[in-house]
Amino acid sequence: MIEVRAIEKVYRGGGGLLSQRAVKALRGVSLTLKDGEAISLIGESGCGKTTLGRIIAGLETYSQGELVFDGTPLSQVPPGDRPQWFHRVQLVQQDPYGALNPARTLGNALVDPLKLQAKHLGKDATWTRERARELLNLVGLDPEATLYKYPHNLSGGQRQRFVVARALTVDPKVLVADEAVSMIDVSLRLGILSLLSDLRVRLGISVIFITHDVAAARYVARDGVICVIYRGEIVEYGRTDDIIRSPVHPYTQALLSAMPVLRGLEKPGPDRFIPSQDLDTQAQDEAGCLFRSRCRFATERCGREHPNLVALDGGERLHACFYPQARDVVPVPVG
Amino acid sequence: MGSVAVEPAQASALDRDVACRVRGLTVTYKVDNRELSALRDVDLDIRQGQITAVIGESGSGKSTLALALMNAVSKPGRIAAGKVTYRDLGEVTAMDSERLRRARGRSLSMVFQASQNSLNPLTRVGAQLLDLARSHDMRDPRAVLREAAALAERMSLDADRVLTSYQHQLSGGMRQRVGIIFGLVLKPQVLLLDEPTTALDVLSQSSVLEIVRSIQRERQLTTVLITHDMGVVAELADRVVVLYAGRVVEEAPTTELIRHPRHPYTRALIQAIPRLTGDPSLARPLEGQPPSLAAIPTTGCVFRGRCPHRMEVCETSTPGISQVSDTDHRYACHWEGAAND
Fold first, then answer.
1. ipTM of this complex > 0.95?
2. Domain limits of chain A?
């Protein structure tokens, strides 16, 4: 089980020595991910979702808060043991082209981490070879046709499958998939998404799926939760079905409204609206609701007070809006 | 609904509603002394004042088609056969390079995928607009800047800021909008959009789509949209052409195609879209990979390797065009089931 406790991340930059501007990428995010659970983090570019994924995978430090894995806080782990500690979390990145060394065969790329693992577990070379084949089969690649090839011989979808296989070499308990399908043709995306769901069920690993595509988020976390992030804050959180069916935060509603409607099979939801203004990452005002300048429902109170994350009707659903109201923005199927 | 086989339409004087006619277009790339066809025998009518989408996977030839529409296929590729004829310009496949240069940008304009890669990183956006104006001998280059500023305001961009910026100072969504400004500023008759939203997140995508939609309506601009995303097609296009391995396999009005796809490839494509409604487990991944250029079958149906309805005839004979009766919905498939919804 992973717990993210009030994590903050501040990037220092810009300006001179004395007038350093701080950019808050995460402003106190808390989350719990149980073993075998799926969670989708959604939000637009620059909202902090990637930073959160990288912090959980141990690739980024945090400024405040605590990361707790199976009850042990990271701060109590000696720095020398941290690499081992983070083996349990593996990151699958957006770009399967950049993630592989073009000059090495796929077999080598897969066998090297397996050799370390074999040493760790006290296994021999036969185990390494068999395990490589087993992992490739698991992600839907033909071992014989893959092991002796180079990355450029594979298509984008196959490469992403391979990257997943490589992440599995160290028997992780958590896979963090950061925009893992956005560079792949739409026609092949579903194959990768269903691979992530299958692995979760078959291997009992948890999946953190990071995306801006709410339909993909729903597919991967269909029996899990969705967490909506805006400018480094969680603004809505809940079971996937609840978030999709009755979003209460205007930002969630904007993300859902922006999804294309498959005219012919669907018609737009009655409350659908198109948010026009861009995310202004330069905006630094901290008072009030961070979303208010883009929110069509903002009032004077939203400029004065900051809405905190609170439970909706006392349940496990959370939202950060003074005026939570469910709206029908999701497309409606036609007859 | 029944189907009838039809003869391929004859190339003739263009009808009033056709802005561009493509007949028998074959584009080949020379690889290791072999001529491989990226597009084969493509027939297409692009309607005046409408948005026509060309949808296909990576390697389907959709970007090659966009280049061929401007006669801009470069070596090792060439247009091996066929004609591309515009109503206002005539046959671009027969033009010399100077006439082509004048036509491109002025009459036919293209917005590329990932505009950040097509803007010059070393000069400001405004200076690049002036270059564009000069290269097309505009008498008053400043008028182009004024037009660009007006377009920027339309797209809810701060015109002064955008025109004085370098490309790295703009976000992805802003750069894509700047790309569209470049495409529109000389008031072309035909606009080609190659994957206009692929690098953008959903919110930027929806605002770019909204901009394209409203400007197209206002100017009655003939638009060709190249994409791999059926969602983008559904949001924008009036008609869709489905391209697979360099061949047109289906063509229909958008809602008709999405509601009643005929070709097994189109059916699978629509089933593979993760949706916000309905049972998510009903979505089915599209199996297999599209063939590489060298592996595209030269006889028979190009989709047979991934087709669940594959028959013997698919190996030997290229399927002809069938038309759903009384509609302009056409598809190329041997399977009888394709005639039914």
1. no
2. 2-88+172-333, 103-171
